[in-house]
Inverse folding.
């Protein structure tokens, strides 16, 4: 009896395990989603641009276009000077926010400005001297033996100041200051004019005593048919207009005899008596 009872237990256990597995499979089938979305294909919605992010930029453009005509013209000329390219009104508007086509006063003033050239379509910066290279600069200076102001050359091209210093260092030009305007003047230096001067002539030249007043020097130059590089009368008149007092002339000091003065002249005994009387 006992032997026939126990063999049936493994069969019941296997049946029970099979039913449990089937129920678990049905449960997973019910809980699994029908389809899994592909996260890689999903796109996040675009973030709209806030108006507050462009407020400062729009305010800048508005302030530029509401500025006086002169201020807008200066802004455009600075752009043309920096770029050195011919720009259309639309290009100017994009780069410095000055609406040339939309403001007739700005357009007319820019077209008639002496620093600007307008060909009917584009605006370009116009310098006083049409120079582009150091060779052009040297040729112009050599044509001006009387000198040319550096201030008239500064806007020729970007590296003009560096080229002036290079020409000075190589000895091809001179850069001298004007006493009136304190501006440098460029003079040509002709190497063919280099001569040897005798020492006697140098001493004679250096021994000439010049007048102390610049007005007298200028008069002497004019008498000898030379044009002075300075204009002292004009400079002093301008200084008086601006309230600058003229420099006082140097007074010669009077040499008076004091107790500390050493007297060695034996033929002036009265001076010794004066000192002896004051010392007692």
């Amino acid at each position: 009896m006992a032997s026939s009872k126990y063999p049936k237990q493994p069969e019941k256990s296997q049946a029970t395990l099979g039913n449990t597995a089937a129920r678990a499979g049905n449960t997973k089938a019910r809980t699994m989603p029908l389809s899994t979305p592909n996260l890689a294909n999903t796109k996040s919605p675009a973030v709209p641009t806030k108006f507050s992010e462009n407020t400062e930029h729009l305010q800048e453009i508005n302030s530029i276009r509401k500025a006086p005509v002169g201020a807008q013209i200066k802004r455009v000329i600075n752009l043309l000077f920096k770029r050195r390219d011919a720009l259309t009104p639309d290009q100017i508007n994009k780069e410095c926010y000055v609406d040339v086509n939309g403001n007739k006063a700005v357009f007319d003033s820019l077209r008639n400005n002496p620093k600007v050239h307008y060909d009917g379509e584009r605006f370009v910066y116009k310098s006083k001297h049409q120079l582009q290279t150091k060779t052009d600069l040297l040729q112009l200076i050599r044509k001006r033996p009387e000198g040319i102001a550096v201030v008239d050359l500064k806007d020729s091209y970007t590296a003009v100041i560096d080229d002036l210093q290079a020409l000075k260092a190589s000895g091809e030009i001179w850069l001298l200051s004007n006493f009136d305007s304190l501006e440098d003047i460029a003079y040509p230096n002709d190497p063919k004019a280099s001569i040897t001067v005798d020492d006697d002539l140098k001493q004679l030249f250096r021994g000439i005593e010049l007048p102390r007043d610049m007005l007298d020097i200028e008069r002497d130059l004019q008498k000898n048919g030379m044009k002075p590089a300075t204009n002292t009368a004009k400079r002093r008149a301008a200084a008086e207009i601006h309230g600058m007092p003229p420099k006082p002339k140097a007074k010669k000091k009077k040499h008076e005899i004091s107790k500390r003065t050493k007297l060695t002249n034996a033929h002036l005994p009265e001076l010794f008596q004066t000192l002896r009387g004051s010392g007692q």
Residues 1-5 have pLDDT under 50 and may be disordered. Strands lie at 116-118, 123-125, 148-149, 173-177, 184-188.
